[in-house]
Amino acid sequence: MYNHTMTEFILFGLTQDPEQQKAIFGVFLILYLMTLMGNFLIMVTIKMSQTLGSPMYFFLFYLSFADACFSTTTAPRLIADALLQKKIITYNECMTQVFAVHFFGCMEIFVLILMAFDRYVAICKPLRYTAIMSQHICGVLVILAWIGSCIHSSAQIFLALRLPFCGPNVIDHYFCDLQPLLKLACMDTYVINLLVVSNSGAICTVSFIVLLISYIVILYSLRSHSAEGRRKALSTCTSHIIVVILFFGPCIFIYTWPPTTFPIDKMVSLFYTIGTPVLNPLIYTLRNAEVKHAMKKLWGNKV
């Protein structure tokens, strides 16, 4: 007789080696603090700077917010578990983590699409840019992104709550997600896995294709711009393209596979849940002269 109402799981983590766990604690604590500091710095700079009031920086604020929250859904647990021998997570905490990971991950996808749309309008429809990307419309687009993220994560948690667990409770991962949970479910998960792929996998793949097409159109339209205009637009678009590739590459790898999971999955998940959020602030500040100038002016005055 098995218990079909599992009350807790054990996270396997990245490794069981004590020395490696100490290294994991130190490395990922530093990366997480860098993520929070970098994204917080960008958010405060955008809110307090008078020169960063364009829609692009309005969306960048929400991207930084999504990055900080997305990293927070997994990094603190990974850091704390590195000090524990037995990494226990309750059923409710596990389901909450599934919801949060997909909510803020989907939010980041939608904000990246909004940023690409903003660049498209700015470069391809410059005379109508102010009318199309008004403050009201930008606010509505962000609200729609929140609603879309909530719908997606609600679908994920609905699938997760339908899984019965009756055998081993060790999750071969460092956080709760549907793929590792499907391996523990005592039922045929083929249909549910198809739903996961058609939901998460489709969102990642379709969004990636849409973003690639939009940036191809943007880069093609730059032919008619001046040399200075091309240079500035290329600098901005290059930053966005780098972020898109770094984020969507691992996501597509994870969420478009069949039920089989691979040992490399955890390393790939690390890249998009912890690596990308810490890289985004560096990409958007080091490659953006306006953000760097605003930071120097704002924080120089504060000091």
TrEMBL record:
<keyword id="KW-0812">Transmembrane</keyword>
<keyword id="KW-0716">Sensory transduction</keyword>
<dbReference type="GO" id="GO:0007186">
    <property type="term" value="P:G protein-coupled receptor signaling pathway"/>
</dbReference>
<dbReference type="GO" id="GO:0007608">
    <property type="term" value="P:sensory perception of smell"/>
</dbReference>
<dbReference type="GO" id="GO:0016020">
    <property type="term" value="C:membrane"/>
</dbReference>
<feature type="transmembrane region" description="Helical">
    <location>
        <begin position="56"/>
        <end position="79"/>
    </location>
</feature>
<feature type="transmembrane region" description="Helical">
    <location>
        <begin position="200"/>
        <end position="222"/>
    </location>
</feature>
<keyword id="KW-1133">Transmembrane helix</keyword>
<feature type="transmembrane region" description="Helical">
    <location>
        <begin position="137"/>
        <end position="159"/>
    </location>
</feature>
<protein>
    <recommendedName>
        <fullName>Olfactory receptor</fullName>
    </recommendedName>
</protein>
<keyword id="KW-0472">Membrane</keyword>
<dbReference type="InterPro" id="IPR000276">
    <property type="entry name" value="GPCR_Rhodpsn"/>
</dbReference>
<dbReference type="InterPro" id="IPR017452">
    <property type="entry name" value="GPCR_Rhodpsn_7TM"/>
</dbReference>
<dbReference type="Pfam" id="PF13853">
    <property type="entry name" value="7tm_4"/>
</dbReference>
<feature type="transmembrane region" description="Helical">
    <location>
        <begin position="23"/>
        <end position="44"/>
    </location>
</feature>
<feature type="transmembrane region" description="Helical">
    <location>
        <begin position="269"/>
        <end position="286"/>
    </location>
</feature>
<keyword id="KW-0552">Olfaction</keyword>
<keyword id="KW-0807">Transducer</keyword>
<dbReference type="GO" id="GO:0005886">
    <property type="term" value="C:plasma membrane"/>
</dbReference>
<feature type="transmembrane region" description="Helical">
    <location>
        <begin position="99"/>
        <end position="117"/>
    </location>
</feature>
<dbReference type="GO" id="GO:0004984">
    <property type="term" value="F:olfactory receptor activity"/>
</dbReference>
<keyword id="KW-0675">Receptor</keyword>
<dbReference type="InterPro" id="IPR000725">
    <property type="entry name" value="Olfact_rcpt"/>
</dbReference>
<keyword id="KW-0297">G-protein coupled receptor</keyword>
<keyword id="KW-1003">Cell membrane</keyword>
<feature type="domain" description="G-protein coupled receptors family 1 profile">
    <location>
        <begin position="38"/>
        <end position="284"/>
    </location>
</feature>
<comment type="similarity">
    <text>Belongs to the G-protein coupled receptor 1 family.</text>
</comment>
<dbReference type="InterPro" id="IPR050427">
    <property type="entry name" value="Olfactory_Receptors"/>
</dbReference>
<feature type="transmembrane region" description="Helical">
    <location>
        <begin position="234"/>
        <end position="257"/>
    </location>
</feature>
<dbReference type="GO" id="GO:0004930">
    <property type="term" value="F:G protein-coupled receptor activity"/>
</dbReference>
